[in-house]
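Example record

One chain of 78 residues, shown exactly as stored in the release files.
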Amino acid sequence: MLTALVNSLVTLSLHASVLPHLEWEVVGPFAGAAVVGSALGARVGHRINTRLLSLGFVGLLVLTGCYTALQSVPRLLG
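Predicted structure tokens for this chain:
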């Protein structure tokens, strides 16, 4: 967590000139949802079997890959 925090702060400081131009009414809800999702995920993650969580994550990756392929392949071939 410390590494992620330091990385985020360094990146934010390097891109500080962009901050006034961000649409905070869009960024704010996404940031809030990320915080809430992280907190809920941490609470639920301790109660669920690690193998089940891993299988669920793999399933999500496979579904994302299939969706991306279905969207991309026709455009690449056409």
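Notes: Helices lie at 2-14, 24-45, 50-77.
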